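We emphasize that the prediction below concerns an isolated chain of 748 residues; any contacts that depend on oligomerization or on bound cofactors are therefore not represented. The input was used exactly as deposited, without trimming of termini.
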Amino acid sequence: EFDKRKAELRASPEKNKYIKWDELLPLYDKPDSSSTNAMIYNFAIKDLKRLGIKTILQIGSTDFNETWENKWKQWQRYYAIAYHSAKTGDVAMFAMQNEPNHRNAGPMKLDQWISGAEIASDAIHRAVEDVNKKYGKKLEGKFVGPVTAGQNNDWWAAIAKNIKTDYHGKTVKENQVDLFSTHSYNSPAAGYESRINNIRKILEENHPEGKSIPILYTEIGRWMNAYLIDKEETMDDPSLFTEWAGIYSNNMKNGGYGMWAFKFANTSSGPYPRGIKSGHHLIWQGQRVIEDAYKNLAANKPVKSSTSSATAKLVTDGIKTDVSAWQSGDGTETEKWLEIDLGSTQELGSAVIYTGSDGGMYTAPDRIKNFKLQYLKGDVWVDIPGMVEKENKYAQVFTVFKQPVTTSKIRFISTDKGNLKVREIKVFAKGDEPSPKSDFNVSGIQRTGEVVRLFAKGFKEERKLLDTKASVEDSDLDTYTSFDAVSGNYYMWLVQRGLSDYQLNIDLANLKIPAGTPITAETVNGLNYGEVTNLISLANTRKFDITLAPQSVVLLTIPSGKLNLTTVSANANVTVKGGADAAKNLSSAKQMEVQLDASNPSNNQVSYIHFDLGNNKPAQIKRTVLAINGHVDVGDKPYRLHVYGIPQQKAFDQNKVNWNTALLLDSKEALIKNVGTDAFVAGEIAFDKKDKYHYLDVTDLIKKHANQGITFVLVRETRQLGDDEDKGRKVIISTSKSTAAPKLQIWQ
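Result of the prediction step, given as a token string:
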């Protein structure tokens, strides 16, 4: 009966008596927040398809049993989701329940998972086959499993033993699991020295034919968020991103099929309502909070405290660093408090509180975990609705009150023991707060994300590794080389985890590369976020020297054939200013500038540079590097800009452009709109006080999106809550009239 129903359904996948498509299809276009991955499903899979991203869809279900009624229900469910996903988004890889052996999944019993996988695998493969047949696609359905948590030799062995058994209990030709998947966290690079080989051995020893299958990690990370949240390390720290790079090195060396760097972004969840620390990208969790744009009604107001009265005033001085913080001391008080006198009655709608050390929003092991903000109502202190924090996980807590309050005084109070540190308390008027419009946009990338990008650029699609020899064995140095036949490039991966400079002499003589070949070194280290730090012309000896800074990751791109260089100068450039100067044209300025000051929009500056590609056809271009000369005016810390490319055939009129008319620029803040559809990420440049050229490899952007012209936008956008670290600083950039003009270096 089961097979009869299955055949009847497959005979007419989109119109049958079993799957109620009229009820299902509308659900795929509605917002769904039933899990931590809030989304509109159709939008998500269509956009991933547009971006060329291969998706694994994980379908949660633990209610499998051995009745045929249950098997038929599960088969229909997996078939329907797989069919729609393959048809709409070209999704071809599917998995079952996340971490079925984890307590959050029951855990599922091993026999239950194996039996369920036999049903789910069949449903998925048949669905993809039927989509291919009906729509002429050539998708290759893959069932991914068991997506287990941690080391699980018993699970892995049992699944391998049953990999040739279908839901009838018959031995079949095809593997029921196409891609072996597991999850792994909390190990350094050295912990992956042989891990994939160990898994492969288990599979081979238990597979009926003594074979392995491709092995991948659908979740992998140096630290689980629960561990990282209480460490001083961040995803930007060299000690962390070099370990990430080493993890990729070892898994690639051992023939890993793929690695999903978890997590893509600092998404929110039940335990982490303001986002996780272990995201490679920064996003807004539903609302864009530009704290510096709101007027702080507590600024420089008088403060009383339960202890240390002399330093209490520091919590309203506008400085959020450790050197300007109130500390309670290790007194025995049951309650420790700070009272701020606003000077007059105010209607308040939101507040932000900074506690613990100044390591960022997510990093403060000494943060205050239990506190509340109160307001004075008559003679009584009353909790502000929504401002009672229990087991707080964040150093920075921004909250829009559930209800506005009217008062002249507020009080911070905590019962946590020990020495408490409060760096700043700000309160804002009702209505002076984030826009009610939802915002989940990506707002920035961390250095671990740049490491992922560079690794994928050089070693995706299981490219063949070349023999790469080093004269000295060093466990802190990784060296791997690949070749990409499509681009004609060799790629060399250099990971340096040591604490001093490494001087390398690289010999490419065996590759038979022409002298004069342009070699780029894209670097992630304590000063750089993936920009090109070295542009090398290969000498006749076919050797070159390169210095690896302490704790750095470098990707060398080495073209295999002879290339000819053309240099294209910018034919239009202009800076625009916001606020009071939004209607002014500044084309007569002798320099371009970039600046962010959310508290005073008149200080916001964004720069635009246009290049006419002329006879340089993007399809024929082998390499393109954007060169921008500039420096930061004050401060030793790198000033990091976002760079976007906007395809534009004709140059803008630099004598007419202002903030109000500039391409894709938000009307109020330094923010580029329509990123991913009309504007495309080119990368990041980190300027320091030394005036010099900075370089970005923009080859892919030019080849994919440019036609005859392209405009680059240099902008300092707000990346996350409390982001004002570059306030009072600006980047000064040379114009096309200078001797160090912006240029595109194009090799064909």
